[in-house]
């Protein structure tokens, strides 16, 4: 199947994904299967593989097709080196347990469909690039795109509140802070970056702006840690945590108007005030 494809990523793996696990009675027969390693850099913590499969189910003569993404944690990836395996563990539980429950509660699909995976921490999901599109990073979202993102985000937040009442442990696990925990590994980098930026502005004669950064360099980390925590007595929700352009997939109608958006990449999710997804 080509260099770089894991040995377990084969026809048996894809059949299991389509059948939904060992307890399912569906009988899938593969007609054609193509597995490729992605030729683009799409993540800092995982290797991405694209699967294209044609198959039949049971005695049916009707041929079906699926485009899947298989996301495999990379221990040498930047995020995993800095933060450890927790981010991938969070995303795996997001797809395996959390997202299906949240979307059922809200009766609304804000994430790609997840398929069964018989390999721990490996995520199998629909390839949104078949029907959805990413906006170029140098293009700002217009009002209609922003409205759609915020409306979908509100449903994501609301469904997490409902699920929290049923499964507090699950929400708190996937909402565990990974970037700004107390004593986190990024502290030195954040403080040094803030101080360096202030000094650079100072050298360029922008004293007013330089003072803003330099005055906060020594406590910027503590401020970040506190701001990311759940706030007692306030509405706390599960935040996506990383809503930038490349994690937003838009679907358009014939008039090229955005009608749907789905979110991907849930490693940075955190349980805190909903406003944190807006800043």
From TrEMBL:
Any Pfam family: EcKL
Q: Which domain of life is it from?
A: Eukaryota
CHK kinase-like domain location is 123-279
The signal peptide annotation in the UniProt record is none
Q: Which PANTHER family match?
A: CHK KINASE-LIKE DOMAIN-CONTAINING PROTEIN-RELATED, PROTEIN KINASE-LIKE DOMAIN-CONTAINING
- What is the protein named? CHK kinase-like domain-containing protein
Q: Which organism is it from?
A: Homalodisca liturata
